[in-house]
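Sample A.
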Amino acid sequence: MCSIGRVHDGQVDTTRLASEHGLPGHLVDFVSAMRRHGVAVGPGETVDAARVLGALDLLHREHLREGLAAALLRRSGQRQVFDTLFELYFPAALGRGSAEVEVPRVDDAEDGPVDVDALRDILADLLRDGDTAALTDLARAVVDALGTSGGAGAGSKRAGGQPSWSAYQALRMLSPETLLARIVDDLRGDHPDEGPFADEVLRREIRDRIAAFRTMVTDEVRRRTAEHRGREQVARNAVPRQAEQVEFLSAYAEQLTTLRRLVHPLARRLASSLAVRRKHARRGTLDMRRTLRRSMSTGGVPMRPAYRTRRPGRPELVVLCDVSGSVAGFSHFTLLLVQALREQFSKVRVFAFVERADEVTHLFEPGAELSDVMARVLREAELVAFDGHSDYGSALGGFAEFWGEAVTSKTSLLILGDARTNFRDPNLTVLGRLVGQARHAHWLNPEPRRQWGSGDSAALRYADVIPMHECRTAAQLADVVEALLPV
C-alpha cells in the first residue's frame, strides 16, 4: 500500500511512498477508483496528474492533495469524492502512526484504562486553541484508545481475527459536542466586553472545530480499516456519491442544500449546450420548389439546394408539479432549474397540486429565494380538499377546468410527480386532452422505473398517454431537460 507518513514538522515521510507497481502505478489505481465513483477522469487529466507528482515536493502532503485536485477535477461537486479517495490511497500514516499526544491513563498505569475525563480536558484545550495538527494527532490516539471493538485497546479484533475500529464508539465516549459551552465560556472570559453578535460568531467557530475533529476521527477509522480490509472494499461504502448522483427521494437536508447550489452551474451548462444546438440547426427543411427552380440553370441537377428559413420562437412553458411530502425535494430542485432557465421560454406558468391544483406563478418573482417561495406555496395556495394525500385525477381535472386555456399549440407541458394516486381515479381522459392541446408534453418521475406500476402507482398507465422520463438524480434531470429544451 502506498502511504505518506506524517512526521512532526508537517511534512511527509517519502520512504513510505511506495507500492507494488511504484508511484505511477499507484496513481493509475487512484484514477481508476475515481472513475469507478463517477468522476470523469481521462488520459489527459491523468498525464497532468503525473506531471504534478513530478513537479511538487512530495514532502508536503497538502500540496500533493491540492495539486492532484487541480489536475483531475473538472466540475463542481466532485471534491468530496476526491478527498475521501485521497485519504484512502495517500494515507497520512501506517498502522498506529506517530503522535505527540499521549492518552492519559487512570493512575498513570501504562496499560490501565483510559482516563476519559482527562482526555476530554486535553480535547477542550486543543479545540479552544484551534491547533489543527495537534487535533489530528489526538484523533489518531483516540481511535487507538477508545475506538477499537469493545473499547479494550489496539488488540481488539473481530470474530474472524481482524482488528476493527468504530468512530461512533470513540466519539460517543468522548462526546466532544458537550464541550461547546465550556470552551465558549473560557474564550468569553478573555473578552468579557464583546456583545451577543461576537458570542454567536465564537459559538459557530467552536462548532466548526468540533465538526472538523469528528471528521478527523472518522477519517482515521476509515484509514485503519482500509489497511486491513483493502481500499476498494472500504471505498464502496465510505466514498460519498457526487451531488448529481444523489437520489432526490432519499436525499437528506444537507444533500438537498448541496443540490440547490448546483442549479445555476447546471443551468449555465444547459444554456450553453442549447446555444450550440441552435447554432447547428439554423437551416430549416429542404424547400423542394426553390431547389427545382435553381436546378433549371444547371440542366436539372440540384447543385444548390434551397432550405426554408427557420423562424424559431421560444415556446411557452406550463409546469404542473406535485408538492406533497413524498416528492417535495424533487419538485423543489426541478423548479429551481426551471426558474434558472426561464429566459429560454417566452412565458412560464407554474401550477402546484396535492389534491387540487392552484396557480402559483405570481410567487416566482425574479430573484425570489425558492425555499421561501415553496413555503408560501404550501401556506397560501389552495392545494388540499379532504385528507391532504396526492390525488392526480382530481388535480388534473381541476387544472383543465379552470386553467385549460393555458395549454395551447405553443405550450410545452411539464408534469412533475411520482404518479402515486393513492388508488384514486387517474383521470387519463383529461390528461390525454391536455397532451393533445400542447406542442410538447412530458412527465418527469423521480421514482425508479422498476417501481412504476407497483402499489398505487399509475405511472405505466400515464406513460401510455404522455412520455414519462425517470429523473431520480440531478444528472438524469439535466439530461432530460437538455433533450426537452426547445431549439
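Sample B, a different protein:
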Amino acid sequence: MDGLSSGQGNHTWPDGTVYAGDFRNDKRHGLGTLSLPDGNTYVGSWKDGKRSGQGAFTWADGRKYIGDHANDRASGQGAMTWPDGFKYEGEWKDDQRNGKGTLTSNNGVRYVGQWQDNKFIGPSKD
C-alpha cells in the first residue's frame, strides 16, 4: 500500500480551509467542494489538486463565476456575475476576460466583442 489517500473524504487544514470530495494520490481529484476561511467557495471538478473542468467559484462579496477552469483558474467558456448586476459571458483565460464575450451592465448597456486582459478592445471582426 502506498499510504496515499484515494476515494471520497474530508480534509480540514489548520487555517480553517475545508475540502469535501474525491481524492486521488492525496490530491483533490474528481468532484468536490472547497470552503475557504475568507468565505469563498468552489464547487466542481478537480484534477491533480487544482480546479479543472466545470465548476462554480463564489466569493464572499457576492461575485460568482460558473464555467470552465484549468490549472486553478477560470479558463474557457464561463459567466461571471457581480452583486451590482453586471454580468460577463464569454471566453476566459487565466482568470481574465480574453476572447469573445458580452458584458451587460446593470442598466442593460452591452459591450459585445473582443476582450484582452479584462479590457474591451472592440467589436468582433467576424
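Observation for Sample B: The mean pLDDT is 94.
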